[in-house]
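In this supplementary section we document a worked example of the pipeline. Step one takes a protein sequence of length 101 as its only input; no multiple sequence alignment statistics are reported here. Step two produces a three-dimensional model, which step three serialises into C-alpha cells for compact storage. The input and output of this example are shown verbatim.
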Amino acid sequence: MTETHLADVLVTLADTLVDDFDVIAFLHGLTEHCVELLGVSAAGLLLADGQGTLQLVAASSARTRLPELFRPQADQGPCLDCYHSGAPVSVPDLPRSYRWP
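The serialised model returned by step three reads:
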C-alpha cells in the first residue's frame, strides 16, 4: 500500500457531502477498503444499539461463511469477543478454529 493509495481511499470515504448520500453504500465501501488496505480476506461492520445489541450493517462480501462470522445472534464468535473485550481478535483459519462452534 502506498501513501498515495491510502490518501485516495481517505478522500473517497470523506467525500460524503452530496444530496444523494447512501449510508449503506458508504458502509459497504468502507468494509471493502478495509479488506484492501489491511490485507484480510473479509470485513464486516457491526453497530450496537442503546441496549448493546449488535447488528451486521455491512460486509465486504456475501460469501456463504461471512454472515456466520458476523452473526451476533449466535451469542458467540470473534466479533462478540472483540466487542466485549475491546481488543482485536485475529483468526487466521476460522474453519480450523475450535474456539467457537
